[in-house]
Amino acid sequence: QVQLVESGGGLVQPGGSLRLSCVVSGRMFSAYAMGWFRQAPGKERDFVAAISWSGGSIDYADSVKGRFTISRDNAKKTVLLQMNSLKPEDTAVYFCAADRTYYSESTSSTKYDYDDWGQGTQVTVSS
């Protein structure tokens, strides 16, 4: 079974930065595509970013392009989300997710394509 643990959330002022981390258990982490999603109160869980197993394919939601960067360190079994120029509308619980389709260079923005989820980390952008 794959377990995912997010960290790095918190309160930040508009224009500020945060870096989220997701540590993944399981020996096959390097074979998985990984994604970040977010969910604001009363709203659906929305796609933020995804990265293929090799890091060769990356995708972002239009709302975060140019501000957020997803990356992975397979040796450390970690996926990161660097968030810059944060806006109040970025406020949400951020979730890390694993797509256990081995060695796929495709990334998905659909939450139903992901097999495992973390518990989430709260990000609040407010002055």
Summarize the structure.
The chain has 127 residues and is mainly beta.
Helix percent band? under 10%
Largest sheet: 7 strands, mixed
**Span between termini:** 40 Å
> Based on helices, strands and strand pairing, what is the structural class?
mainly beta
pLDDT averaged residue by residue: 96
Q: Say what oligomer this is.
A: single chain
- What sequence of helices (H) and strands (E) makes up the elements? EEEEEEEEEEE
The low-confidence runs, each spanning 5 or more residues with pLDDT under 50, are none
Structural description of this entry:
- The protein is an all-beta fold and 127 residues long.
- It has strands at 4-7, 10-12, 18-24, 33-39, 45-51, 58-60, 68-73, 78-83, 92-99, 116-117, 121-125.
- The strands form two sheets. Strands 2, 4, 5, 6, 9, 10 and 11 form a seven-stranded mixed sheet that branches. Strands 1-3-8-7 form a four-stranded antiparallel sheet, with no helix packed on it.
- The protein is globular, with a radius of gyration of 13 Å.
- The relative contact order is 0.33.
